[in-house]
Design a protein that fits this description.
The chain contains 10 helices and 21 strands. The chain is of the alpha/beta class. An 8-stranded parallel sheet has the order 2-11-10-9-8-7-4-3.
Length: 441
């Protein structure tokens, strides 16, 4: 009875206009459980073409060159890219993070020939294995960048398979630097054109920049990626990833936009075994949600300590939603609001960044499912405790006895995808079941 009284008081603090009588409520306390390691929009995001992937993952990382996607001005090869790279066996059923480049050391130039024909100058370099840097500040380059980004957004802004979009396009590897020749990089006017064009073209996607440099040091909605994690994440230098974020005032952006990035290539054993403490600290301090395209999942390793550290890192990165206690009316009259009160915590280091629908499912004795959408915005569950009153309509639910379940719906598949790290019965379609509820006439 003390638990019920406490929960009722908490419920009043969440929604003073709604009360539940103690004799008419169902209350449950849930034990913790280990969630799957391929939770959506977090974890490893490996290359598709780097060989076998040895651990669970929910995302893949794709590169493409501008020249391949727009070989003729105004004619785009997006469908061909999707047919060639997005259907790779390693990408099946996975969300996509992508980056477009012009300059990738050791690879063929990704600068469209038609852009060079407009007079955009280039300069060769020998560092990093050699490559070609264009004049990013040429007027024709600036116009073309804005048009290409607009076309990219028209194709992918509403594509529910796309997880995150990296700005790319500028600098070696699309990483927004031309080290050790910084004078070759884009100026503030060009970087502003690129960022503004991306924001306009992708109003519904999370965007990520490599560094908070030039105009990228301004937007408070912009995410970032550290492509030398954790070696350069917080190494004591003034150019370290987190140091630069703090100096630019972008170190709080993680609250609204993702932080991720690539592990130092071919050094997974070093960072997951010998210097794992540094790795974990960098992930926690940086509020990382994902690691890739090079990541520990690309290494075949049976060492229990290696695998255990990977499991811990996967659990700690991004979000980790745990429901501790739930409460709802035992009987709900059809047409009255169906309400579910939750107490829980986000034990991860970041929010969930998209407003995926949260639905309640009512499963009858024959296994038939009726769903109803709640008013919950799951993005509000930032790290720490939460108390939430979910409200959903019941007018389309036939009277009867049901099992009440919850699901966070992936818009790509329209099925429950995210799982709460609480010990609950898991329905075959992905719903997590709380308890029994009755809908009355």
């Amino acid at each position: 009875m003390n638990i019920i009284r406490t929960l009722t008081i908490l419920l009043l603090s969440v929604c003073s206009s709604t009360t539940l009588q103690a004799q008419d409520i169902v209350t449950g306390n849930l034990f913790p459980a280990t969630p799957p390691y391929d939770q959506p929009l977090k974890g490893w995001a490996p290359y598709t073409n780097a060989g076998k992937i040895h651990q669970p993952y929910s995302m893949v990382f794709l590169y493409a060159s501008w020249k391949d996607l727009e070989p003729i001005e105004g004619q785009f090869k997006f469908e061909q890219w999707e047919k060639e790279d997005w259907i790779h066996p390693n990408a099946e059923g996975k969300h996509v993070i992508f980056r477009i480049y012009m300059d990738y050391p050791k690879k063929e130039s990704g600068i469209p020939q038609w852009l060079l024909d407009k007079g955009v100058e280039t300069q060769k370099y020998e560092q990093h294995g050699g490559g070609i840097t264009p004049n990013y500040n040429h007027p024709e380059m600036r116009k073309a960048l804005a048009k290409f980004i607009a076309a990219l957004g028209a194709r992918y802004n509403t594509n529910p398979r796309v997880a995150f979009v990296q700005l790319g396009l500028l600098g070696h590897w699309g990483e927004w630097h031309t080290y050790p020749q910084p004078e070759l990089f884009a100026d503030n006017a060009t970087t502003k054109i690129v960022i503004d064009a991306y924001r306009k073209a992708f109003p519904d996607k999370m965007l990520m920049a490599r560094y908070p440099r030039k105009y990228a040091a301004v937007p408070k909605w912009l995410g970032f990626h550290d492509d030398m994690f954790p070696a350069d994440t917080q190494n004591g230098e003034d150019w370290a990833f987190l140091t630069e974020l703090k100096a630019s005032g972008q170190d709080k952006n993680w609250a609204v936009a993702p932080i991720g990035g690539e592990m130092e290539p071919f050094q997974a054993e070093k960072w997951m075994l010998h210097q794992y403490g540094t790795t974990l600290k960098a992930l926690l301090n940086g509020h990382f949600s994902w690691v890739g395209p090079y990541c520990p999942a690309l290494v075949e390793k049976q060492d229990n300590r290696y695998l255990g550290n990977c499991a811990e890192l996967l659990r700690r990165m991004g979000y980790d939603f745990r429901i501790l206690t739930f409460q709802h009316k035992r009987i709900v009259k059809r047409g009255d609001p169906l309400q579910l009160f939750l107490i829980g915590a986000n034990h991860g280091v970041a929010p969930f960044y998209y407003k995926w629908p949260v639905r309640l499912a009512l499963i009858d004795i024959n296994g038939k499912i009726v769903t109803t959408e709640t008013d919950l915005d799951i993005r509000r569950w930032r790290p720490g405790e939460f108390k939430t009153l979910l409200t959903a309509p019941s007018d389309k639910i036939s009277p009867g006895l049901y099992r009440l379940a919850i699901g966070v719906i992936d818009p790509w598949t329209n099925k429950p995808r995210l799982q709460f790290s609480s010990k609950m019965e898991l329905h075959q379609e992905g719903w997590q079941i709380f308890s029994q509820i009755e809908i009355s006439e």
